[in-house]
Amino acid sequence: MSTTDGHLSSPLVEKRSAAWGAVRVDHCRFGEGQLPEHSHPEHMLLLALSRCSGELSAAGGFRTRAQVRGGVCVVPSGQPFTARLGGDTECLAIYLDPALVARAARDAGDAGRRFEVVARSKPRDPVVSRVGLALLAEMREGAARDGVARLYAESLANVLAVHVLRHYTADGAEPRRFAGGLSGPTLRRVLSYIADNHERDLSLEDLAGEAAMSTFHFARQFKRATGTTPHQHLLKFRVERAKELLVESHLPLAEVGLRTGFSHQSHFTRLFRRYTGTTPLGYRSRARA
After folding, report:
1. Of all residues in the chain, what percent are helix, strand and coil, respectively (each to 5)?
2. 194: helix, strand or coil
3. Distance of alpha carbon 99 from alpha carbon 86, whole angstroms
4. What are phi and psi of 167, to 5 degrees?
């Protein structure tokens, strides 16, 4: 967690960060000590990755004490807070752009209502835990610059934005549910766009724009129409295209990975193995045997 002037007090032992569009994360380890009062421009969802002793207090009288592993604390955008840490603490801070939650609120179907994110803590929140650990895994794999990682993280951010709207606002708004799925022409247009741009750093907003929908509506309707999420479809498409290049060309493996949108060789190999059960080299060798 960073202060408003970008400096951290002495309790910080280690920090790793990653960002994907409207969501960013800080993976932090702290020792005993005090964090000075500070705030963030984003909504902060703090996930305890270990037992956290101490106390977090925010302006307005909000206060939460020791958290068990898996505990979650939400601090709204711009709300000053401070923390006193009683010992070794590991946490993941997830920062959501307020505009993302505002778009989720608009998708709730009542533009006249105001939705205020409020400071709140829970001993467990399975949705925040699952999304947080998925983002942490992406950061650890070093795939923050990969186009699939960005699309995946943005999809997870949408899930969090809707979750925050439902469970961490004064109104507890319930986003409206949409019936049906993408129409045939719209789905074909989106799939064609993915095919033509699969090597690019595609965002959820890019794909939703092709469908002339909000990102929230699009992600839900795409899965309903195809049975898979946009980022999963993009991954599968890239792997299928890579299989074609491995058989039909003599390009080096690294070049095949780059031409199919993978930012580095290890990520290409890992995902190719996940979907095919073999490495790119193994696939090429068997195909040419």
Report:
1. 45, 20, 35
2. helix
3. 34
4. -120, -10
- pLDDT per position as a tens digit, 60-70: 778 888 778 89
pLDDT at 40 exceeding the cut of 50: yes
* Dihedral-angle region of residue 54 (phi above 0 means left; psi in -120 to 50 means alpha; beta otherwise): left
0.70 surpassed by pTM:
no
Q: pLDDT digit string (tens) for 105-164?
A: 887 665 555 678 989 999 899 999 999 999 998 888 765 455 567 888 888 998 999 899
Q: Answer for the pair 284, 246: CB distance below 8 angstroms, yes or no.
A: yes
C-alpha–C-alpha distance, residues 256 and 268, integer Å = 9
Q: So what's the pLDDT on residue 278?
A: 92
245 vs 81: CA distance, rounded Å: 53
Taking the C-alpha atoms of residue 34 and residue 86, their distance in angstroms, rounded to an integer, is: 9
Nearby residues of 183 by Cβ (< 8 Å), 6 or more positions away: none
Specify the residue for token string 């505990």: 71
What's the token pair of residue 228?
């898979």
Assess contact for 111 and 64: CB atoms under 8 A. Answer: no
Q: What is the mean pLDDT of residues 178-183?
A: 60
Three-state SS string over 148-161 comes to: HHHHHHHHHHHHHH
Query: How wide is the angle at C-alpha 207 spanned by C-alphas 203 and 208, nearest 5°?
Result: 110
Cα–Cα distance measured from residue 64 to residue 196, given in angstroms and rounded to the nearest whole number: 50
Cα distance between the two ends of the chain: 54
120-122: strand order across its sheet: 12-20, 23-30, 89-96, 43-48, 72-75, 120-122
Burial of 120 (0-12, 13-18, 19+ CB in 10 A): middle
